[in-house]
């Protein structure tokens, strides 16, 4: 390491000191805030609910603007998610708002897997963030965060209880995202029915172990209002972008023959409560919870799945370097093994084939040996025959010669006789 | 049935709000949460002993961080350079700040100061490493930020220029930490001397390409004017004091001389207030951000690149560094699979070729042997035929000769019979 001795004195004792005047670090929160304002904020809302339940209208009402609106048909094959991003500005605050719609939710005959595209979308956003976080050269501070900060779950105003689809879906989502359940089209339920409905819903959620988002009560500035709002869940909302004249004011409302339902009238519906909680009071907390709780859970599961651990078998903490090096060694070993296996397979194949071919060669050799022997045999026979013939020929020649010498002496006698 | 794919990258549209929504309150929410969390800041002071480092810290934070019980670095010199930290908790206006002051007793005080910056570098790196490990754990809980956010480097007021040690130190640390050079004990320089000294220092800093902390430009023109004014004053000439003196009825921090009082917070006497405003009141957050986004990320990417490439291959392209080590391993795995497939195909090819060759050889060999065998057979057959022919000829000859002999024999027999007859007849005559 260093040429000089390194003696790092780590004093962890924290002394409380009093200041003798105004130093000025009380401006730190302002410095932080001004930085974030310059950077801009980002907020992502997921709306889950059946087709036609009022998701788009509610978004338009909440943000006082007309977002892109395509009326969805009821004939979607499966649920798909449609994210849309908008740049909004209010005084000096820039907000990158992404609204994700679940198109086709609740329309299929078999809704067993309706929740899946939603869960997949949420996981994909976490995964993208995790990948960015794990990069070697990364830029987290200007990364467009697409993780869902809040899921507004739209409950049908049946007045009775939650549908099983609602329970199943919310149960699958509660560990991945902050859920605020809302009762849609609340202008179709009377006050007394609404009260009973809310109690029924909350008790069903509790008995099924569904964790919905609780407005935080640890900060004294907002604990009171948050606590009281928690008691009003689920919010019964009405959305409208149409304006109706009531008295001498023009308000957003829905006009019926029997009266006007005013969106921003707290005795008509909980819209104002929702807006208050979602946007004006707890937006930052929702972002924090998503990052500190839901994302961390996803990250932890993902890393454990990939085989990362925090401590080795001796319970000594791993440093990042050790972890990566271990993974890398394992990985390289794996690759090497595969290579070895393949080579070995080839060596075996070659051996086998060699043996086969040798066998064939031997057979061939044997065959020809046999033929050669046969041939030798034949040759021998021919030789024998030749010898025999030769012998006979010789014998015959001898006979001939003998006969000839005999006949040579005979004719003399004849001549003699003739003379007489 | 309509099937629509999920939009990959959402296009961003502008929208105007037609009424008050309320997210303008978001900054307040952020404010509240940050106050609740509290703040941390680590400040490092480096310089030879006796340059007034402890006094300056006490003056900056208006507290007795260094005192008789907690002596400053110049009182604690040991044989070798040490790097030591002290943590204090200070509160102001509801804001809690955990301030860590890191000092380096013994820096530059030895006869041979080679490598006296190494302990400092090691300290900074070890804090980055701690943060990296904490950030990379599977179970992440609170990640305390102990990284060094700012390093105040004290230059002795020689009036001439930087010393070799100053240059060496700043060069080695400028890409690891925010370096802010200060002219210490500025009350030994007259304003003109100070101006010249500052110019000389800045010239040398530029010559040696030392990157000291730079103030970021803001969108606000007014702020930018102020920032430019501060930039012209760099490096800041400071004076510190632990003593409060009464001047013209006011109680001020200052240094009492027979010829007057040098006031610490007087802008005409020194740049202390500029330093304090910049360091604490306006740019403390930016110092933390630059440390996090630039210095720490540099450290991290170097560290991870070393782990991934095992420090062997220095020819890695930039493209490979934009992935996480895991993604890189996956890519390498993919590459390896392709390589193996190719190798397998090649080996297969070679194998097939060799087998074909051998088989061909075998075939040729067989053909050759067949051919020879055929030839020999024909040869033998020819011999046989020849033999047959010879025999036939012989047989014919023999048959002829035998027939001839038989005739001769017969003739002889006839002749001898006639002779016998004649003999008998001859006698009668």
Concise description?
The complex is a heterodimer of chains A (420) and B (429). Chain A is 50% helix and 15% strand.
Describe the structure in your own words.
The complex is a heterodimer of chains A (420) and B (429). By secondary structure, chain A is α/β, with parallel strands linked by helices. In chain A, helix 7 packs across helix 8 (283-305). Chain A has two domains: 37-306, 3-Layer(aba) Sandwich (Rossmann fold); 318-394. Mean pLDDT of chain A is 85; it is low at 1-9. In chain A, strands 4-5-3-6-7-8 form a six-stranded mixed β-sheet, with helices on both faces. Helices cover 50% and strands 15% of the residues of chain A. Chain A contains nine helices and eleven strands. Chain B starts with 11 loop residues before the first strand and ends with a helix. Residues 1-10 and 311-320 of chain B have low confidence and may be disordered. Chain B has a domain at 28-66 and 79-238 and 270-307: Rossmann fold. Chain B is built from ten helices and ten strands. With 429 residues, chain B is α/β, with parallel strands linked by helices. The longest helix of chain B is centred in the last third of the chain and has 104 residues, at 325-428. Chains A and B meet through strand 1, strand 2, helix 1, strand 4 and strand 5 of A and strand 1, helix 1, strand 3, strand 4 and helix 3 of B.
Topology diagram in text:
The complex is a heterodimer of chains A (420) and B (429).
Chain A: E1 8-9, E2 14-16, H1 28-39, E3 41-48, H2 55-62, E4 80-90, E5 93-103, H3 115-134, E6 150-155, H4 164-173, E7 179-183, H5 191-207, H6 220-230, E8 235-236, E9 243-246, E10 249-256, E11 259-262, H7 271-281, H8 283-305, H9 320-419
Parallel strand pairs in A: 3-5, 3-6, 6-7, 7-8
Antiparallel strand pairs in A: 4-5, 9-10, 10-11
Helix pairs in contact in A: 7-8
Chain B: E1 12-14, H1 26-37, E2 39-46, H2 53-61, E3 83-92, E4 95-103, H3 118-136, E5 150-155, H4 164-173, E6 179-183, H5 191-207, H6 221-233, E7 236-237, E8 244-247, E9 250-257, E10 260-263, H7 272-282, H8 284-309, H9 318-321, H10 325-428
Parallel strand pairs in B: 2-4, 2-5, 5-6, 6-7
Antiparallel strand pairs in B: 3-4, 8-9, 9-10
